TrEMBL record:
This is Antistasin-like domain-containing protein. GO terms for molecular function: serine-type endopeptidase inhibitor activity. It comes from the Eukaryota. InterPro entries: Antistasin-like, Hirudin/antistatin. Residues 76-101 form the Antistasin-like domain. Keywords: Protease inhibitor, Serine protease inhibitor, Signal. Residues 1-18 form the signal peptide. It comes from Lymnaea stagnalis (Great pond snail).
Length: 102
């Protein structure tokens, strides 16, 4: 939340409930559930992540989050095929069309 959002929220609370004691407002803490640093793991006792997860920032601290698999776009060459395929061409294992009818 931006500073203007906090000011607006506090303004609304003051209008609705009168004066607010800011000492009683509880804010969340940054959770450090993991680390990518071998030094921090050894000294701080913070571990790494299980297989299939990686330690990433969540904006305030670090947590184990699922590994995101990035797909690389395949640039298929133009096929110079003399076949006319009314149902389209079959595809190769890489997703590119082949000169074979479906």
């Amino acid at each position: 939340m931006s500073l203007s959002g906090v000011v607006t929220l506090l303004s609304l609370l003051v209008v609705c409930h009168g004066a607010i004691n800011l000492n009683n407002i509880i804010f969340g803490t940054c959770v450090e559930m993991c680390s990518n640093s071998l030094i921090i793991r050894a000294v701080g006792g913070i571990g790494g992540c299980a297989e299939g997860y990686e330690c990433r920032s969540n904006g305030c601290g670090h947590t184990c989050q699922p590994v995101l698999v990035k797909q690389i776009a395949v640039m298929c060459p133009a096929i110079g095929c003399a076949l006319f395929c009314p149902s389209g061409y079959a595809t190769l294992a890489n997703g590119c069309p082949s000169c074979t009818c479906l």
